[in-house]
């Protein structure tokens, strides 16, 4: 994140995400995500998000899932009811959307989901992992794809320090990524909604 940008305030937090279980995996993961955030920011669209899940749940079945949001462009592979087809949709997409997809491909080739799981000692079920640039800020979202009441943990991606847990976003980022402003934070007790 850049110096001087105002961060959301009053965001709900969960202490579980403060502990890194494997420092080496975390450092490797951090470098991958920092580079990806820099590349996504350079596309000069708002928002830009790339996401992946090994086992996305959509009320009917589970499947491998990838998605790209770049400004007004959105598509996904493993689409509910077959509405989108990412590779087909990218053919006519803006060059920036194709570049965002290239970032996602590089993250997947570098096993970013596995590094995240190792760093935080989690087991993949139906969750997705997303790199997001919205309103000039870079984020990483770990989302449950089968609604929970806890929210989805969001990590701030910094230019000059390791990524850090920031707070909780509204549930189901795998659906929210389709929205014009997909990342919305949950508010802490007695707080106004954070945007």
Word description of this protein:
- This protein is α+β, with helices and mostly antiparallel strands and 195 residues long.
- The protein has one domain.
- It is 27% helix and 25% strand.
- It has 5 helices and 7 strands, in the order αβββαααββββα.
- The protein has a 7-stranded antiparallel beta sheet.
- A hairpin with a 4-residue loop joins strand 1 and strand 2.
- Helix 1 runs antiparallel to helix 3 and helix 1 crosses helix 4.
- The radius of gyration is 16 Å and the shape is globular.
- The two termini are 16 Å apart.
- The C terminus is likely disordered.
Average of per-residue pLDDT values: 84
Terminal Cα span: 16 Å
Q: Spans with pLDDT under 50 lasting ≥5 residues?
A: 190-195
Main β-sheet description: 7 strands, antiparallel
Instruction: Let me know the number of strands.
Output: 7
Proportion of residues in extended strands: 25-35%
User: Which structural category do the helix and sheet elements fall into?
Assistant: alpha+beta
| SSE order, one letter for each helix or strand | HEEEHHHEEEEH
Widest sheet: strand ordering: 3-2-1-4-5-6-7
Could you give the topology of this structure?
Blueprint: H1 23-41, E1 48-57, E2 62-70, E3 73-77, H2 86-91, H3 95-109, H4 112-120, E4 128-134, E5 137-143, E6 152-156, E7 164-169, H5 173-176
Antiparallel strand pairs: 1-2, 1-4, 2-3, 4-5, 5-6, 6-7
Helix pairs in contact: 1-3, 1-4
């Amino acid at each position: 994140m850049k110096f001087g940008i105002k961060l959301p305030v009053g965001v709900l937090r969960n202490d579980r995400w403060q502990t890194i279980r494997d420092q080496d995996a975390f450092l490797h993961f951090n470098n991958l995500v920092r580079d990806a955030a820099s590349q996504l920011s350079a596309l000069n669209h708002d928002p830009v998000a790339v996401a992946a899940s090994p086992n996305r749940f959509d009320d009917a079945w589970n499947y491998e899932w990838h998605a790209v949001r770049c400004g007004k462009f959105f598509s996904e592979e493993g689409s509910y009811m077959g509405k989108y087809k990412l590779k087909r949709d990218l053919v006519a997409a803006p060059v920036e959307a194709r570049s965002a997809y290239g970032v996602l491909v590089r993250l997947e080739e570098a096993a970013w989901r596995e590094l995240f799981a190792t760093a935080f000692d989690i087991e993949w079920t139906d969750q997705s992992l997303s790199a997001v640039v919205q309103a000039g800020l870079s984020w990483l979202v770990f989302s449950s794809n089968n609604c929970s009441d806890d929210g989805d943990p969001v990590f701030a991606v910094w230019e000059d320090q390791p990524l850090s847990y920031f707070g909780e976003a509204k549930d189901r980022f795998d659906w929210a990524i389709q929205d014009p402003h997909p990342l919305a934070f949950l508010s802490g007790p007695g707080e106004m909604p954070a945007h």
